[in-house]
Amino acid sequence: MILLHPTITELYWSSPTDLTVRFVSGETARRHQVYIGRRLAGETGSPSQRRLTINLIPTVWPQWLTVVAIDEEEAGLDRGAWLPPRPYNSVRVTFGNADWTGDPHEIDVRAWDLFRGQSPDGAIDYSTPIATVVAEEQTTSYEIHSDPLPGSGNWNLGLRGRDTKNPDGNVGPTAEFSVEVLATPPDFESPFSASGSSGTLTLSARIPSE
Q1: Beta-carbon neighbour count of residue 53 at 10 Å?
Q2: Pairing of strands 65-70, 124-125
Q3: Residue 176 near residue 157 (C-beta atoms within 8 A)
Q4: pLDDT computed for residue 124 by the predictor
Q5: How far apart are the C-alpha atoms of 151 and 182, rounded to whole Å?
Q6: Does this model's pTM top 0.70?
Q7: Residue 72 shares a structural domain with residue 152
Q8: Which residue intervals make up region (Disordered) (predicted)?
Q9: How many Å from the N-terminal Cα to the C-terminal Cα in the chain?
Q10: Pick from 190, 192, 122, 180: which is nearest to 154 by CA?
Q11: Looking at the domain assignment, is residue 111 inside a domain?
């Protein structure tokens, strides 16, 4: 069970990629979680805690932050799928490596790399991965989160594994797929302007094109 009663009261950057979230809540017997879109970003260590610092990549494409209250027995569980539908621009990819494992004590997989196109419907750019997850011994299930995707539409992504051969590892087969993204329109530094003439005040607002 999750409750959407908590209210965010303050946000501030504590480092270039760490955002501190302060909130109030009447739930005194439950822990709280912070979600970026539908991705679990942080969880309080006790019911009384009212501040969390989460890792967040700054972007002009706004991302929804949500604080929820959860029962103690649900601590550590990701309930992002239960959140209401809203525009989200980050993708979570889950996958397994059951077909590519070596000796349990000497795993032959080094890492998995996630790639994407530069725009919706664009060809996948394999020059630089947008995210990487390092292999762990005897682990067969993994999860990668993409960076914030700049725009709505169908995004093409590719997932590749690399083995432990030096220096960078041999590349395994590529799994390609696409996801539909509905992104919040980009923000502007100065969306409003004002001017006055002959006793008339004119207010203008810049409206996103998407």
Answers
A1: 16
A2: unpaired
A3: yes
A4: 95
A5: 7
A6: no
A7: no
A8: 188-210
A9: 35
A10: 180
A11: yes
